[in-house]
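Question thread 4412

I'm putting together a teaching handout and wanted feedback from people who do this every day. The idea is simple: show students a protein as raw sequence, then show them the structure tokens that encode its fold, then repeat with a second protein so they can compare. Below is the first pair exactly as I plan to print it.
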Amino acid sequence: MTRRVPALALVLALAACATSPSPPESVELTVYAAASLRNALEQVEAGYETAAPGINLVIATDSSAALRTQIEQGAPADVFLSADIVNAQRLFDAGLVEDGITFFAGNTLVVIVPSDNPAAIGTPAGLAHEGVRIVAAGDEVPITRYATQLVNVLAQLPDYPADFSNAYAANVVSREDNVQAVVAKIELGEGDAGIVYQTDALASGSVRSVNIPDEATHVQVMYAGVVITTSAHPEAARAFLHWLTGADGRAILAEFGFLPPS
């Protein structure tokens, strides 16, 4: 009996190992996302990795246009979250999108100034005043497209000068790589004003917001997500994008000021 007990114990241990479920295989998903999503995605990462054990999100943020170009050049992204429809559509048109385009969030625009507001800008009309230093983004960055729409709408309002759009353009003193770089320059006082997303203004403790007239608030800001055709884990990528558009994902985005897609 004394010789059989260890052997029996070994058999039982091996049997237990054979019937125990294997731990889930770890999957690393690379998410390329618009710079304006950076803060929210830190919380999204924690939430999704808790909801989907075995999934590790690797998040890279920059201008949507810059990230789209990287994907076109073969960068190994699984999911692309763009601050506009245009860049997602370009990838779709190029055959680089696995499925369709998913709209997952919205945003609004706001004019920001440094906390001490040295240029004394009280309304967006001040963006056209002589000597005002406006910090903007590059031509391909989504915030620039949205800002141009906003400026053109403002130029049509009765209280704004006829040359408002030209005066605004003449006051632009720098073009940054993405919207967070715009905010950073205003925070440092290296510019008097900039047009950014409401979520970026809310995340900064060093800027003030200038109200935009109701007539100009209809500029639509839409965020679009896609799964990239070259993804090594397309099913996992789809599952993440589905979660982001669901109740849990939208709740996190709402905490940071993002709106539901409309």
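The second pair follows. I'd like the answer to focus on this one:
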Amino acid sequence: MFTIEQKPVPNHGTRGSHRPIAIVNHVTIGARGSVINTFSRPGGNSSHFLVCRDGAIIQFVDMTRRAHTNGYVRDPKSPLVRQMGAVNANYYTVTIEHEGYEEHGLEGDLTEEQFTATCWLHKWIQTEVERLYAVRIPLNSHQVIAHNQIDSKKGTCPGTKFPWTRLYAELSRADTMTLAEYEEDVQYRKSDISLAADAYAFLSRMKGLQARLEHPVDSAEAKRKILLMLPVMAQLGLQKEPTVENILERIEEVGTAAMSNGQWKAEGLRKLNIGVSHAKNMGLIA
């Protein structure tokens, strides 16, 4: 389903007697080329994987080796890391960088291609670690963690917009399947049939929120949730002032354009899926 491009770098070390028991998510400062150049310089940083904005996956360090990206253990928030005490977290983790331009405002806001790729990669890592070490890493919040849970001085890495809620929901599905089963499930959900179901759920949700705007108690919360769609409205073609009313109007227009004679059109579904994906990241739809 995905291919992993191999770009070995010189910066890694032995795991010693440790086995991987956690996956750590990071966000990059720069774009793909900058990351590759940084990791390729001897004596520098490294990570096991990079998931790029277009969904490409690059592997820099073999999982039997220790990458260098987690840095210090300082006031850790993760119970697992606290349990491991003074052991450098690089020894017992697999690390994933996400091309997210932390210094340029993206703050870990993944593209849909990137989100799908990182979910698959988490499942692939789980499968490979089990094959190599006879250790299963549960895909849950205890053992799939953020860099800032290891080093509290690393700010928000992998970013304030990293879709943790959606990621854990998706990984809970993946955790119950084999890799082959999960790949088949993902392929189905990328099909037009599944996209149509998601589009219907999204449009219905927006209609429901619109109806709540007239409610004396619910209106404020309905407005807040509708405004969560703001970051993708330019991609959906909104050219008017980004008010609640104009957001709803544009979403309805996109939905109408995506359907003809009672049938969903593939190109219209693809565009509507921009809104669907963002709504999922924001927890507006499942």
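Top answer:
Good format. For the second protein you could add a caption like this: DSSP finds ten helices and ten strands in the chain. The first strand starts at residue 4 and ends at 6.
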